[in-house]
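User: I've been trying to design a sequence by hand for this structure and keep getting stuck. Would you show me what you'd pick, starting by listing the structure so we're on the same page?

Assistant: Good idea, let's start from the same input. This is the structure you sent:
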């Protein structure tokens, strides 16, 4: 948890972990050409801003 808190503080973004996870999903989808037909489930979102970012992305549909 300290790593996440440190990263949020360093980047001044409370949603940074969500953004990193989303970018990783995009990278994997591009690498394996899954075109969005694979679901990714986040086991743990610790910060309200991370949840909000996921909701924004879900509405826009990765």
């Amino acid at each position: 948890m300290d790593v996440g808190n440190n990263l949020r503080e360093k980047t001044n973004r409370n949603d940074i972990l969500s953004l990193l996870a989303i970018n990783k999903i995009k990278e994997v989808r591009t690498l394996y050409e899954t075109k969005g037909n694979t679901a990714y489930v986040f086991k743990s979102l610790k910060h309200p801003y991370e949840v909000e970012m996921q909701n924004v992305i879900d509405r826009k549909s990765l």
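That's my pick for every position. To get oriented when you compare it with your attempt: The chain has a mean pLDDT of 81. DSSP finds three helices and no strands in the chain.
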